[in-house]
Input
Amino acid sequence: MPVLVAENITKKFAGVTALDKVNIELHGGKVAAIIGENGAGKSTLMKILSGVYNEYEGRILFKGACVNFSNPREAQETGIAIIHQELNLIPYLNITENIFLGREIINSWGMLDKKAMRATTQKLLKRLKLDTDPDTKIAGLKVGQQQIVEIAKALLTDAEVIIMDEPTSAISDSEVDALFAVINNLRAENKTVAYISHKLDELFKIADNYIILRDGKTIESGEMASITRPAIISKMVGRELHILKKSTVNFQDEPLISINNISLDHPKNPGRKLLNNISFNLHRGEVLGIFGLMGAGRTELLETIFGIHRKSAGSINTLGGQVNFRRPSDAIAAGIALVPEDRKKDGVILGADVKTNISITTLPQLSNAGLLNNKKEHALADRYISALKIKTSSHSQLVKNLSGGNQQKVVLAKCLATNPVILMLDEPTRGIDINAKNEIYKLILELAADGLGIIMVSSELPEILAVSNRILVMCEGSITAELQADAASEDMIMKAAINK
Amino acid sequence: MSINPVYKAYLVKFQPLIALFILCLFLSIMSDKFFSVDNGWNVMRQISVNICISVGMTLVVLTGGIDLSVGSVLALCGAVTAGLLKNGIPLQSQNLLICFTLFGAIVMGVLTGTLIGSFNGWTITKFKVPPFVATLAMLTIGRGLTMLWTNGFPISALGSNFAFIGTGWFLGIPVPVWISGIIVAAAIVITNKTALGRYIYAIGGNENAARLSGINIKRVTVIVYSIAGALAAIGGIIVTSRLDSAQPNAGVSYELDAIAAVVIGGTSLSGGKGTIMGTVLGAIIIGVLNNGLVLLNVSPFWQQVVKGAVILLAVIIDRANSKSE
Output
């Protein structure tokens, strides 16, 4: 009998369907690989299984009994633990204190029983073959060791099912081996592991079963031994595709911007490179798509071009010659605009109104003798509200009251207000509904037809194929493929994006 | 009870004004001395120093910061102006004495405040010191510098021209009220009508978005703390002039009165939301409350309890309003 069964799970966020009647089974003593593109619904599903989200349709059976967790703690007490990509440990507490956080052993005097907790921790660490003093502070451990502490935390509550979300995304090869040894141990103890990753080689090494998700649906599940790499890739991709009419690009023109061998060091770990020898050109009227999976370095690339990070090597040339941006205002002055990935965090001022958000990039142009001209400002806002079809009651509406798609259009408007020659878009359609998506695609193509050069980072294959003239694929900080969009297929792109 | 939402929005918007009106009405009934022209000017003159400081504090708080050093800066700059005016700077080696005109001494005082403010802004932006800590350090440094400059003794008898700033009248209005009024007007123009004002709100509203919009966060931050320092200096000059004496322990805990005025005026301590007019009303409420409690012969100990309770009440009401928004 399977340990954990999810039946017909459906989950919607503000009208957007994230999971659509998903069915999975997890068995004791097996490692199940959960495979899918970014946005396929893996994380949402795991958050439902571990009690982070508790409103959904469908039902979850744990050892045959129907369960509905109201919070992660309830899920843990039942026997399901999740280890997030971002670890939930407190850096300045030691291993023992972290493992027992919230479930401390109290002695008969009402005090912490440190001895007992330390002894239990020592046993757990031994079981997981982590040769470290339980009194070590978390901050002094490597990320791989911290992960093992998380696993120890899960074992303390006698977890039957352990869900790991992208556990190898931030650790070195030797740490991966140690992690796999632990997972093999867990399997031998008849625990169930759900392992989310898009590194296929790892999955072939460690997993027994696979479950492929796409667009919030379960596509296929089976045994790892009976499927091949290309078969997995073709099942991950294959969404509906509408190629839009693109403008033609003259690649003989002098490029609007050329990126020459730029690199970026990891801020805390100089040995690791976030960007490694990246070179490309962008031409007038071109939409250059950049595809990559989580952690490929796409956002870092745009941010480095925009002057947010200081590159460690290489050079950038625009039509005006070599440039060296020290801050975003330098890049904006050179005609570059960036629509950031996280619009709530980096894009809009939620508590300010639409006109304030749109005019913020061009206030000096809207002023006479140092004083803002309200008429000019309102005219600018109204012009973009109608040009981009921003649905808002007026230019005085607060941005927090707009839908995600309309907030994104506000960010686009403030970028376009600076009259850029190069527009960089980082996941421009994340979390917005299908109609707004289509409007944004149309807009991108219109802007390209007007002669702008556009760089669009996206992790949605259909989108990147539909809009781009040319596609760069990134993996672990390097460009692994350059494809003409009309000659590219989803399989080709995915193959280049997945770690060898 | 249900209130028409349109009226409710007005009630929320004019809340500090309504509170002030009720307070004045109450005090007019309770004390026959309260509602008189003399007492009105008296209150206005008393709060003009707090208004100067509070306007600067509002700008700082709008960016999401805080300036705890304003009380010490007030004392230092008042002492600098008084010292230069009275003693000048003796250069022993050259056997020279540099004397300052009234105007020169005032400019030097304001300049000192501006420099200290820009130093605050610099440590905050360059070394990422939290504003609370950076200006807490400056609170201590400023007080120490004041003691060094004055040797711990007041600098007194500064002449009748200088006294005009704190005690004089112009066109039937006390000079300090003119000064604080001009500062308020200038600050309203800056916050509502200039790019700098927008940037201040934008940084407090979402610093990341502001930076990616091309705003030079460091420059704006340094400017804002410099303004706060300059306004504290002006406050210091008014205090010194009114007392005809620069006291080394002047302005102790003034930063708290300024923060109280900002908070009662509805400015969010997390930044991005608030108005200069709100702060002015906040300062007037505190001033009227102080004055009223004295007129009603309330013991000074109870005065502090009442003042604290009013601050707490103002913030609780403000929270309730922003939740129902």
User: Anything to note?
Assistant: Residues 95 and 175 of chain A are 18 Å apart (CA to CA).
